[in-house]
C-alpha cells in the first residue's frame, strides 16, 4: 500500500516551522528521518495533508559535550552517534545501546528526535532517555520547556509533545569516567527491535557498595521504565551476580508481561531477568579483573 497524497514543506528556521504548525494545526505531521513515519503513512495509519521536513533547519544536529553533560540535537542520526568518538567517552552506555538500533540504511536516516517523539517502548533511545535521566527540550508558540524523560512518555507511541511543539534536543547529565555500566538486549535478528533489553549503571563508594543504581527496561510495558524496586534493593549493597539475579527475579515476578505470538509472558519475564543479569555482569566485569 502507498500513502494518501500529501503536500510537502521544508522550512529553514524554527520560527518558520512553528508558524506552519500553528497555522495548519492537526493537518501537518513533522518528518525527520521518516523511518517510522513513512511506514505509518504507507499503511495509512495516518493521513496528514502536509509533511513538514526538519532537515532544512540548521542547528538541530549538534552534539555538545561539556562539564555539565551532553546535549544531542533532535536531528542527530544513529550513524552520527556511532561515528562520534568523543561521545563514546562522554556517554558510553548510550553509544553501546544505540549500536543495537536497526540496520545501516535506517541508521543513516533515523534520528534521536524522531525516536523520542515516536515513543516505541521497544526502541532503545526512549529507554535510554529514562535510564540516563535525560531532559527533553521542546519549543512551541509559547516558548520553550524542559521535560524529564520520565514524564515525557505517556504510553505506547504517546508523549506530552503538543501538536504545535517541536522536539529540539535531549540533555544527558554528566557521566563520570569511573561509573560502572552495562547493556544487554535480545532480538530475533540483529537490528530488529528488542524483545527485551536492560541498561544499567551505578557508582561505587570507597567500601565497594553500589549507589545511584539505575535499571532501565526496554521492550516491556506501555512505555520505557526503570525497575525502581530493584534499584532500591541493590543500593548500598556490594553487588554480586547472585544478588542481582535474586533481586531481578523477585521484582520482575511481580510485574505482568505481554504474551503474544512471539513469546509467552513466562518467556518474556525470564528473558528480562537474563538481560538484567547480563548487563550487571558487564558492569561488574572491570571491577572483578
Ligand atoms: C525495519 C526497521 C527496523 C527498525 N529497528 C529499530 C530498532 O531496532 N530500534 C529502534 O530504536 N528503532 C528502530 N527503527 C525505527 C528507527 O530507529 C526510526 O528512525 C525512529 O524510530 C524514528 O526516527 P525518524 O527520525 O526516522 O523519525 P520519523 O519517522 O521522521 O518521525 C517519527 C515520529 O516523530 C515525529 N517527529 C520526528 N521528529 C520530531 C521532532 N523533532 N519534534 C516533534 N516530533 C517529531 C514525527 O512526526 C513522527 O510522528 C526501525 C525502523 C525500521 C523501518
- Strand arrangement, largest sheet? 4-5-10-6-7
Share of helical residues: 25-40%
CATH topological fold name of the largest domain = Uridine Diphospho-n-acetylenolpyruvylglucosamine Reductase, domain 3
The largest pleated sheet is described as: 5 strands, antiparallel
List cofactors, ions and other ligands. Answer: flavin-adenine dinucleotide
Distance between the termini: 55 Å
Mean pLDDT: 95
> Number of DSSP strands?
14
Assigned CATH architecture of the largest domain: 2-Layer Sandwich
Number of domains: 3
Describe the 3D structure.
With 289 residues, the chain is an alpha+beta fold. The protein folds into three domains: 7-53, Uridine Diphospho-n-acetylenolpyruvylglucosamine Reductase, domain 2; 63-173, 2-Layer Sandwich (Uridine Diphospho-n-acetylenolpyruvylglucosamine Reductase, domain 3); 180-288, Enolase-like, domain 1 (2-Layer Sandwich), CATH 3.30.390. Helix content is 35%, strand content 25%. Strands 4-5-10-6-7 form a five-stranded antiparallel beta sheet. The protein has a four-stranded antiparallel beta sheet with strand order 11-12-13-14, with helices on both faces. The structure holds flavin-adenine dinucleotide (FAD).
Task: Write the SSE topology.
Elements: E1 7-9, H1 14-23, E2 28-31, H2 37-42, E3 50-53, E4 63-66, E5 69-73, H3 78-83, H4 85-90, H5 92-98, H6 104-107, H7 112-118, H8 124-131, E6 135-140, E7 143-148, H9 149-152, E8 153-155, E9 158-159, E10 166-173, E11 180-186, E12 196-204, E13 210-218, E14 225-226, H10 228-234, H11 241-253, H12 265-288
Parallel strand pairs: 1-3, 2-3
Antiparallel strand pairs: 4-5, 5-10, 6-7, 6-10, 8-9, 11-12, 12-13, 13-14
Helix pairs in contact: 10-11, 11-12
Flavin-adenine dinucleotide (FAD) binds at residues 29-37, 39, 54, 74, 101-102, 106, 109-111, 113-115, 117-118, 123-125, 161, 166-167, 191-193.
Amino acid at each position: 500500500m502507498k500513502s494518501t497524497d500529501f503536500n510537502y514543506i521544508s522550512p529553514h528556521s524554527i520560527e518558520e516551522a512553528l508558524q506552519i504548525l500553528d497555522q495548519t494545526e492537526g493537518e501537518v505531521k513533522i518528518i525527520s528521518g521518516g523511518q517510522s513515519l513513512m511506514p505509518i503513512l504507507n499503511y495509512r495509519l495516518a493521513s496528514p495533508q502536509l509533511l513538514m521536513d526538519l532537515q532544512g533547519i540548521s542547528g538541530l544536529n549538534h552534539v555538545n559535550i561539556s562539564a555539565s553533560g551532553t546535549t544531542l540535537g533532535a536531528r542527530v542520526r544513529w550513524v552520527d552517534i556511532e561515528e562520534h568518538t568523543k561521545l563514546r567517552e562522554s556517554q558510553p552506555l548510550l553509544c553501546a545501546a544505540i549500536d543495537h538500533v536497526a540496520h545501516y540504511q535506517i541508521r543513516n536516516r533515523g534520528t534521536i528526535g524522531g525516536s523520542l517523539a515516536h515513543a516505541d517502548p521497544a526502541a532503545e533511545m526512549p529507554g535510554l532517555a529514562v535510564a540516563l535521566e535525560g531532559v527533553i527540550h521542546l519549543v512551541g508558540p509559547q516558548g520553550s520547556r524542559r521535560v524529564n524523560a520520565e514524564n515525557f512518555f505517556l504510553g505506547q507511541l504517546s508523549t506530552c509533545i503538543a501538536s504545535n511543539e517541536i522536539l529540539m534536543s535531549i540533555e544527558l547529565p554528566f557521566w563520570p569516567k569511573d561509573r560502572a555500566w552495562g547493556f544487554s538486549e535480545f532480538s530475533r535478528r540483529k537490528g530488529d527491535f528488542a524483545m527485551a533489553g536492560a541498561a544499567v549503571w551505578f557508582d561505587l563508594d570507597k567500601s565497594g557498595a553500589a549507589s545511584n543504581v539505575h535499571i532501565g527496561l526496554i521492550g516491556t510495558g506501555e512505555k520505557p521504565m526503570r525497575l525502581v524496586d530493584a534499584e532500591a534493593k541493590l543500593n548500598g549493597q556490594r553487588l554480586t551476580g547472585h544478588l542481582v539475579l535474586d533481586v531481578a527475579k523477585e521484582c520482575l515476578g511481580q510485574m505482568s508481561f505481554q504474551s503474544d505470538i512471539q513469546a509467552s509472558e513466562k518467556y518474556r519475564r525470564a528473558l528480562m531477568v537474563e538481560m538484567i543479569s547480563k548487563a550487571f555482569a558487564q558492569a561488574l566485569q572491570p571491577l572483578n579483573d
